[in-house]
User: Fold DNA polymerase IV from Nocardioides donggukensis.
Amino acid sequence: MRSHASVLHIDLDAFFAAVEQRDKPSLRGKPVVVGGVGGRGVVATASYEARVFGVHSAMSTREARARCPHAAYLSGRFHAYRETSAAVMSLLREVSPLVEPLSLDEAFVDLAAADLPGHEVADVTAFGHDLRRRVREVTGGLTASVGIGTSKFVAKVASDLDKPDGLVVVPPGTEQELLRPMRATVIPGVGPATAERLRRAGVHTIADLEAVSEDELVRLVGRSLGHGLHALCRARDDRPVQAERETKSVSAEGTYEEDLTDRRLMEGLLSRQARDVAERLRKHGLSGRTVSIKVRLHDFTTLSRSTTLGSPTDEAAVVARLARGLLADLDTTGGVRLLGVGVSGLADWVQDELFGPDDSEREADPEPEPALDVPSTRHRAWAPGSDVVHTELGPGWVWGSGRGVVTVRFETAETGPGPVRSFALDDPALSLFRPPSPEAPAADAP
Assistant:
């Protein structure tokens, strides 16, 4: 742990929803939910106005609509999120060469590598206020919550204490005083299952964790997590801010609007995903030893299975064969809504022929891939929230569509709330906005 509070964590507030409210003036100050808009959808982000009604990320869209039926439900515009995120990350890299992005809306920054006049509490506090101001400028008004502390763990906890648009600096030496009253679930890795094990042992808060010996924690939750909990509940965290994070796995998955019940179709989809994963592994010069599948059943139960090879592979046929074998051990008769394949235990080499897969393992599927008739509802060409352009009225966004009609509100971030007009779905004057493809992506990680 550092002697100065020089690790910063920044979290853009309700990011996807905030971008939508920025670009759609009529939605400012109103509940907005971004995510899957269909019956199988899941909430990605809810604005703070929607959170008042109990809507939160990872909730099913069906439940969100029941809680907040008057919210705007939008499918999302990832080109706008990527562009906004890139502006923020560029700003952070101007501040320090050590920036570790965690997602589009979240990052760690090492202030020890920044050009600050000092690293005392007053110095980093002034910097935090200025950074939040600069974020508002480069994003067109979005807010960010910032935490600054002596470690990644403390900084991340601090950034969540005064949301939205907050700044919390934890002075060195006060970390445990801050942490002790908090629930043990603020520690990374303490999910529902671990929290229940701790609860049965009488452990609810971080102060309770401190009272448990390291050996007892290992007995309760396992060696790796037990050692980690023992250190973090005492605010011990020496993890560095890493400008480049090592890829730990490569995966592909799909969610289906109707439950899959045909086992051959599921096997075909897993084989297709395995080919996608293998192609990405080879593209980045990687291979992996552990193949896993993820299966979400009709009742939302999620099952995971994995198997480990003796040597790493990037062979699509090997990954596909193992994935299909893992599926064979699962009962999917009730229907499957999500399938995924992943490869982990990555290496930057593939074992040579002497120790690698034998010829039978290298043999690709002998028969051509059958056509995969995946059940789905009609494709939504005019997804709610999508950017559109009308030859006369200019830019706008899809308010809704159905029965041969699409309704558009014409407004942008620079205008006030705009007028609403309806058009035939095939009106030649109306088209979806297609963002230009970046010529040189900043990153092409697997």
About this structure: The radius of gyration is 25 Å. Residues 351-367, 439-446 have pLDDT under 50 and may be disordered. The chain has 14 helices and 17 strands.
